[in-house]
Amino acid sequence: MGAAPTPKDQEFTNTVSAPGRLVTTEEFEDIIVRQTATGAVVRIRDIGRAELGSQDYNSFGRLNGKPSGAMAVYLLPGANQLRASETIYETMERAKELFPPGMDYNIVYDTTPAVEPRSTRS
Questions:
Q1: Spans in the chain with pLDDT lower than 50
Q2: How many whole angstroms separate alpha carbon 41 and alpha carbon 32?
Q3: I want to staple 40 with a disulfide (CB 3.0 to 4.6 A). Which of 4, 36, 75, 116 is the partner?
């Protein structure tokens, strides 16, 4: 909490550990910040607001000069890059069915060709 982007006079930055996976702003606003000796609780919504935003504001995506989302996939050593690539292409095709009208995706950098086995020539 309190990390960028914030006003220059932001005084505090706090790390929040929460059980489970929070998804909506309402779930984040329900986090208890403090509990008094009498049992009264102070929640985020009582002292501020929650907004869903980027994990990191140090990078941004552009494709053909237009704003875009960017996603990178890094594999662990020993992972099967060919199978991972196939799965990513299949997953993106399925995900495309859920995109709003007019939205599309492009895979602009694929290192798989460097590791694909060469076809045998007769």
A1: 121-122
A2: 6
A3: 36
Phi and psi at residue 16, to the nearest 5°: -115, 130
Q: With a threshold of 0.85, does the pTM exceed it?
A: no
* Rounded Cα–Cα distance for residues 44 and 2 (Å): 12
Task: Give the tokens for residue 87.
Answer: 């799965």
Task: Give residue 1's pLDDT.
Answer: 64
Tracing tokens 């909506």 back to the chain, one arrives at 24
Q: Which residues contact 70 (CB under 8 A, 6 or more apart)?
A: 59, 60, 61
Tokens (6 digits) for 66: 């237009």
What per-residue confidence (pLDDT) applies to 121? 45
Pairing of strands 61-63, 41-43: unpaired
